[in-house]
Design brief:
There is one protein chain. By secondary structure, the protein is α/β, with parallel strands linked by helices. Among the domains are: 236 residues, Rossmann fold (3-Layer(aba) Sandwich), CATH 3.40.50.12780; 74 residues, Luciferase, domain 3; 124 residues, GMP Synthetase, Chain A, domain 3, CATH 3.30.300. 31% of the residues lie in helices and 23% in strands. The protein has 20 helices and 32 strands. β16, α12 and β17 form a beta-alpha-beta unit.
Length: 649
């Protein structure tokens, strides 16, 4: 082992009974995959999936990169997550819900089955939602959001969840792209002890467009007054009472879409990432068992929102497929104080805690010693997700929260991958802080040049997955050309296009992988990926803006913050440009898109062909010395003017 980073060995007591108890066991699995790739996946598919009818082929590469897994096999994800557990886990808690104001609800697998069946019948019989229809969810973190997801899966509808912090404009765009039939929302929810509204955003979105929507189903959560459109809006709480308690599930083919999830890309238009049924649920369950080492009596808490892929895979589908108890939390971990999260761990005896580095940094900053006030001895595994974690935050998390005995699984994955790809295994992997470590068994991750040449130790390259895997993205909804270009257009291996993650990475002398961050124009703010093009498109809607360029800047808490350069049209002056543009961004995208820095500049650094030199703008935002050759710019003097403006800001 190298000595430049401290190595944290797995807790031997934990490792003794772990699902993967040693690196020898890890390498046996990985070598098995390398030697017989299809046989590896076949064995786990046969073991984990409750098949309704058998598949005839493990992997079909005939239309690559539109890969197909377990072709013609049939299953149902609602059955995989609920029905098959009822024989021995009917009374076990499936979802442990804690509201913002502290109320707690224990929902057993039997009760979950009842709720999901009734909602499935409601969608199927009252609103004529059938297999293949798209259903948009714009929901708070309440149990009805989980019921809706699983009800869609039960009847074969494709759900598309839009994060509840997105604006009406963003919601409208996603509804229209998916051509959704129905929106499921809530009147509102609670945050930091106060009600906030969601239904109004849906109304505003549908006032702007979304003509495909036939109905809006509204869960009454906080009972605040809301606008009501007769014939379109329907009260879930009233309608659900009369629904039948049994609903037969659809037999879905392996490659039938399970859900769409829109994510930012390198153009202004969000991408509808399409995930399949069998491959996705298989990997969701496998990674729950491998990475978190979940057992039958565990209480698993992922603090994400279901509006993101982390919430899909590690609040709902993964934990329930594994038959464990999953925690849904409506509030924020710092309300009413910085001890809220640790009190929940103590009260519910939570065994695995999975959150973002941003949350860890905030909890560290607001309450460095708060964890010591609570009994956190139930914790076995700590996890991080969404962005690289810095060593100081990692060490506080390990020493103070985990009492120096919990493994920290620093997971790397993406919306497009469906589940974890690179991560420590808590009972096996010697951990280096802030290092993602090794690809999981069955995942062939390589750091290469665009032509497929492997990078040497210590050299940053493109992080690529060079073999298809079951949970991978299947398409971009309605745009197969963009799918190929976005994910298979940047790197080849042995002459064939391979999946490029968009991230850079570096390999050390021990074979450990460290993620260095995005190499494209995507900013990762508190684990939320936003395309610079989408932000720029929103800013350009202001009539006074002539040009705009958006870059990321390192941030101690968020990981990255948004930094915007604006050139105003001639004759226009805006003395309050930051507030003005941030109000626009909140309206067009949502509050998560607000920028920490917005500066007006006389122009942007461009080549003579008109290309904006974003590397220069990133360097200025970071207060770095400009080392690039600027002599080829159309106007080299503009760089010094931008630097001066940035210093003044």
């Amino acid at each position: 082992m190298s000595t430049d980073k401290k190595i944290y060995q797995p807790n031997p007591t934990f490792a003794k009974d772990a699902v993967i108890p040693s690196m020898d066991d890890y390498w046996k699995l990985q070598n098995r995959a390398i030697e017989d790739y299809e046989g590896f996946w076949q064995a786990f598919a046969d073991e984990k999936i409750d098949w309704l009818s058998a598949y005839n082929k493990v992997l079909d590469e005939s239309e690559a990169p539109f890969y197909k897994w377990f072709t013609e096999g049939r299953l149902n994800v609602s059955n995989q997550c609920i029905d098959r557990h009822l024989a021995d886990k009917a009374h076990k808690t499936a979802i442990l819900f804690e509201g913002d104001r502290g109320e707690v609800e224990y929902i057993s697998y039997a009760q979950l089955s009842l709720h999901v069946n009734k909602m499935a019948n409601l969608l199927r019989h009252e609103f004529n939602v059938t297999k293949g229809d798209r259903v948009v969810l714009y929901m708070p973190m309440i149990p009805e959001a989980a019921y809706a997801m699983l009800a869609c899966a039960r009847i074969g509808a494709i759900h598309s969840i839009v994060f509840g912090g997105f604006s009406a404009e963003a919601l409208k765009d996603r509804i229209e792209d998916a051509e959704a039939k129905i929106v499921i929302t809530a009147d509102g929810a609670y945050r930091k002890g106060k009600p906030y509204m969601l239904k109004q955003v849906v109304d505003d979105a549908l006032d702007q467009g979304g003509d495909s929507i036939e109905a809006v189903l509204v869960v009454k959560r906080n009972n605040e007054p809301t606008k009501w459109v007769e014939g379109r809006d329907h009260n879930y709480n009233e309608l659900i009472v009369s629904q039948h308690a049994e609903c037969p599930f659809e037999a879905m083919e392996s490659e039938d879409p399970l859900f769409l999830l829109y994510t930012s890309g390198s153009t202004g238009k969000p991408k509808g990432v399409q995930h399949s049924t069998a491959g996705y649920i298989l990997w969701a369950q496998m990674t729950m068992e491998w990475v978190f080492d979940v057992r039958d009596d565990d209480i698993f808490w992922c603090t994400a929102d279901i509006g993101w892929i982390t919430g899909h895979t590690y609040i709902i589908y993964g934990p329930l497929a594994a038959g464990t108890t999953t925690v849904m939390f409506e509030g924020v971990p710092t309300y009413p104080d910085a001890g809220r999260a640790w009190k929940m761990v103590q009260d519910h005896k939570i065994t695995q805690f999975y959150t973002a580095p941003t949350a860890i940094r905030v909890l560290h900053k607001m309450g460095e010693h708060e964890p010591k006030k609570y009994d956190l001895s139930s914790l076995k595994v700590l996890g991080t997700v969404g962005e690289p974690i810095d060593p100081p935050a990692w060490e506080w998390y390990y020493e103070t929260v985990g009492n120096s005995h919990c493994a920290i699984v620093d997971t790397w994955w993406q919306t497009e991958t469906g589940g974890h790809m690179i991560s420590p295994l808590p009972g096996a992997t010697p951990i280096k802080p802030a290092c993602a470590t090794f690809a999981l068994p069955g995942i062939i991750a390589e750091i290469i040049d665009p032509d497929g040449t492997p990078k040497e130790v210590g050299e940053t390259g493109l992080l690529c997955i060079t073999k298809p895997w079951p949970a991978m993205i299947r398409n971009i909804w309605g745009d197969p050309e963009r799918y190929v270009k976005a994910y298979f257009g940047d790197a080849v291996k042995d002459g064939k296009p391979v999946y490029f993650s968009g991230d850079g990475a570096v390999l050390d002398e021990d074979g450990y992988i460290t993620i260095t961050g995005r190499v494209d124009d995507v900013i990762n703010v508190s684990g939320h990926r936003m395309g610079t093009a989408e932000i720029e498109a929103a800013v350009k809607r202001d009539d006074t803006v002539a040009e705009v360029a958006v870059v990321g800047r390192p941030h101690d808490i968020k990981g990255e913050s948004i930094f915007i350069y604006i050139v105003l049209k001639e004759g226009h002056i805006n003395l309050d440009i930051k507030n003005h543009i941030n109000e626009l961004l909140a309206t067009e995208i949502g509050n998560i898109a607000k920028a920490d820095h917005i500066i007006e500049v006389p122009g942007l650094p461009k080549t003579r062909s008109g290309k904006i030199m974003r590397r220069i703008l990133r360097s200025v935002a970071k207060h770095e010395e400009i080392t690039q050759d600027i002599s080829t710019l159309e106007d080299p003097s503009i760089v010094e003017q931008i630097i001066t403006k940035a210093r003044e800001a």
